[in-house]
Amino acid sequence: MLAPVPHRQYVFTVPKLLRPAFGRHRAWLGELCRIAARLLADAYAEALPGARSGLILFVQTFGDLANFNPDANRGGQPTDSETSA
C-alpha cells in the first residue's frame, strides 16, 4: 500500500476548436504532456525552491460519450514543504 500523502490533480484540456487537429496528429498529445510537465515543474520550482514533486502523466482521448476529447492529466504528491506553504 502507498503511504497516505497529500496530492493534487491537474487536467489540461484541449479546446474543442483544436481537437480535430490533435485527432489527425496524435503525436502532439505527447508534446502536450511534456509541456504540461514542464509548466508544473517550473511553477513548483518557483513557488518552493528545492521542492520536488512526483508526476504521473497520461493522455485521455475520450469523453463521457466515447467521443474524441484529448486532455493531459497530472497527478502527484507534493513534498512536506509544499503542503506547509
Major sheet attributes: 3 strands, antiparallel
**Mean pLDDT, nearest integer?**
75
Tally the helices: 3
Rg is 15 Å
Range of helix content? 25-40%
Q: Give the low-pLDDT segments.
A: 81-85
The total of beta strands comes to 3
The helix-and-strand class reads alpha+beta
Strand residue percentage: 15-25%
Summarize the topology.
Layout (H helix, E strand, L loop, with lengths): L7 E6 L5 H6 L2 H21 L8 E5 L10 E6 L3 H4 L2
Antiparallel strand pairs: 1-3, 2-3
Summarize the structure in words.
The chain is built from three helices and three strands. It is α+β, with helices and mostly antiparallel strands. It has one domain (8-79). It has a three-stranded antiparallel sheet, with helices on one face. It is elongated. 7% of the residues are buried. Mean pLDDT is 75; it is low at 81-85.
Short description:
By secondary structure, the chain is α+β, with helices and mostly antiparallel strands. It has helices at residues 19-24, 27-47, 80-83; strands at residues 8-13, 56-60, 71-76. Helices cover 36% and strands 20% of the residues.
Question: Which structural traits does this protein have?
Answer:
3 helices; alpha+beta
